[in-house]
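Please decode residue identities from the backbone states below.
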């Protein structure tokens, strides 16, 4: 359409913006679960993205010329927006597209770049190189900007079934918490006690967030991986948050972890045995996220974890934290008799916590790819860190920077533990899925 045939004015912008909002609201309602609650707060996120689009159009218009009218770009852009929004939104329903996120993103950016050039032609007539390059660059940067902001634009939010259940029956929640000490005691009672003169590994897995199943699967996989390496299979306790199953394992909670460590210490020899504590969940710069639907659970902060370990009396510790910002645990947990591994430093995110994954990126690299064939935990961590860095580089992600701290007395202790492991555990093999 020649640009002179476009009606450019405030009225056209308002009508097109309202139309776009209506289309987006209708698509959001179509995809929302039933029942769903209307949340007008999402309009803030929508307005922020519109503002970004306005700035992008203004920059492109300035690249065209100082006299160029930004509205000339906004009108054709808003006119095609309902069609683009509908196509992209509906395309996301196809599983094969969702499973190929990188390819789909590249194709979407290429399509939008071509569309952007067409809009430039409709707005200003003859296409010029400088505004074309600016438009393509801004479109190419859009996925990173959207991922960085990650604003919630859902007008219709489904109600969590687990939260409904808990809210409707507070007695069930009270009974669940009342049973936890007995559940933890029973789990620890099944653990094989220590044998004098022979160091052994005791494993505790902690899956903090009950919504994505990846954390439960990673804690279970880690238990198998360390059982294969150190023979800790009969000395394993798992604390698992799972919104779909609150009966198979004791809940992962701060108080539950402290109780489990104290009880486990009574079955260990503090002078010879080693605790392997594997923590997996979402993380923040405050600590580890602990959630299980609407259950009132406190977050696990580094000071609480150090206190729980110290009060248990367990001396030899291997602590592995698979979470974003896991490096915040590094300083508070350091001691001469501790190994600490974290999936990220204190300033960066780690990756791979999506529901459909078996393991996080760190869990896959360390537990599955590196640990079975490595001569030491230090070597396994180094291999895993390189694998993660390569994957982040290929995906153009900000590096998570996994961290390792090795207490001065732990290298020899781990050699003793490895030598004392049963012969079948010392064999190198990959734990099956």
């Amino acid at each position: 359409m020649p640009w002179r045939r476009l009606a450019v004015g405030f009225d056209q912008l308002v009508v097109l913006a309202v139309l776009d909002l209506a289309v987006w609201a209708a698509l959001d309602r179509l995809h929302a679960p039933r029942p769903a609650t209307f949340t007008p707060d999402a309009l803030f996120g929508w307005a922020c993205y519109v503002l970004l689009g306005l700035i992008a159009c203004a920059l492109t218009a300035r690249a065209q010329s100082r006299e160029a009218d930004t509205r000339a770009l906004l009108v054709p852009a808003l006119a095609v927006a309902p069609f683009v929004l509908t196509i992209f939104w509906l395309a996301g329903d196809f599983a094969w597209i969702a499973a190929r996120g990188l390819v789909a993103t590249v194709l979407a950016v290429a399509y939008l770049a071509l569309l952007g050039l067409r809009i430039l032609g409709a707005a200003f007539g003859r296409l010029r190189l400088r505004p074309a390059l600016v438009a393509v660059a801004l479109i190419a940067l859009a996925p990173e900007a959207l991922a960085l902001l990650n604003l919630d634009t859902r007008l219709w939010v489904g109600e969590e079934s687990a939260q409904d259940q808990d809210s409707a029956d507070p007695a069930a929640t009270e009974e669940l918490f009342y049973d936890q000490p007995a559940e933890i005691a029973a789990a620890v009672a099944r653990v094989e006690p220590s044998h004098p003169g022979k160091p052994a590994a005791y494993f505790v897995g902690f899956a903090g967030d009950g919504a994505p199943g990846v954390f439960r699967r990673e804690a279970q996989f880690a238990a198998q991986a360390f059982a294969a390496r150190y023979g800790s299979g009969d000395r394993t306790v798992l604390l698992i948050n799972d919104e779909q199953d609150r009966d198979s394992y004791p809940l992962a909670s701060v108080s539950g972890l402290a109780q489990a460590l104290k009880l486990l210490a009574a079955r260990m020899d503090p002078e010879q045995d080693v605790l392997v504590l594997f923590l997996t969940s979402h993380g923040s710069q405050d600590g580890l996220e602990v959630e299980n639907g609407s259950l009132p659970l406190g977050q696990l902060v580094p000071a609480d974890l150090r206190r729980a370990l110290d009060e248990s009396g367990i001396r030899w510790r291997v602590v592995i934290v698979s979470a974003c910002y896991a490096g915040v645990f590094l300083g508070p947990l350091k001691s001469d008799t501790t190994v600490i591994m974290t999936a990220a430093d204190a300033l960066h995110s780690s990756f791979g916590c999506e529901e459909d994954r078996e393991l996080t990126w760190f869990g896959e690299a360390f537990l599955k790819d590196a640990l079975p064939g490595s001569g030491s935990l230090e070597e396994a961590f180094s291999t895993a860190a390189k694998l993660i860095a390569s994957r982040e580089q290929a995906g153009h992600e900000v590096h998570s920077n996994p961290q390792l701290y090795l207490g001065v007395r732990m290298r020899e202790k781990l050699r003793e533990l490895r030598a004392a492991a049963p012969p079948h555990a010392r064999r190198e093999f990959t734990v099956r899925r």
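Observation: The chain has a mean pLDDT of 86.
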